[in-house]
Amino acid sequence: MIIPVKDMAGKQVGELELSEGVFAAPVNKPLMHQALVRQLANARLGTHKTKGRSEVRGGGRKPWRQKGTGRARQGSTRAPNWVGGGTVFGPQPRKYTKALPKKMNQAALRSALSVKVDAGQIVVLDKLQMDAPKTKTMVDALSALGVVDSSVLMVLPEKNAAVQRSANNLSNVKTLLAGYLNIRDLLGYDTVLLDKAAIDHIEGWLAPGGADKSDAAQAEGDEE
After folding, report:
1. What CA–CA distance (Å, rounded) separates 132 from 48?
2. pTM exceeds cut of 0.85
3. Which domains occur in the chain, in start order?
């Protein structure tokens, strides 16, 4: 699969052959959905908490005697049927984490990348580099590439302070290291802007039978 390579001025400077095993893989929509649900679930804190009748303040005295009043018997003003009473079956702290084998997660990422390629939503740059942090320069580059009006995911091979700080002020742009590529960001942005060097890293661990993802990147995916 051949894809054009552009510079930050929007001009084509060459072509690149993408791995068909990664960027032209069979699309498995149920697997992508499973991977996305897993990532969203793992991002939940699970710290929600409601108080039961034994935890609500007050209600220590019986509101009226058991018999002879003509009213229904009551033992506490903090029972669930009273205003200000405890909550029945309310949410309690819990873990929402889900497990997903590495090979399934990699297959889901291959499917997502293949969908992006088919839709023409992947742009490859020869070098995503800036001399100094400058938001205006970043906007000009996105305009030259024709993606300034869409949400953009920039995938970098390594940390680049100038590029990352230039993109921080743009609400529709996110920078991400290639080792932290994940299904939520791939599906959540209109355009994926790939540094040419980042493709080598992606193909290295996403190719069928390739190296496993690093432990640090896997941990990041679990938390997101």
Report:
1. 43
2. no
3. 2-44+95-223 (3.40.1370.10)
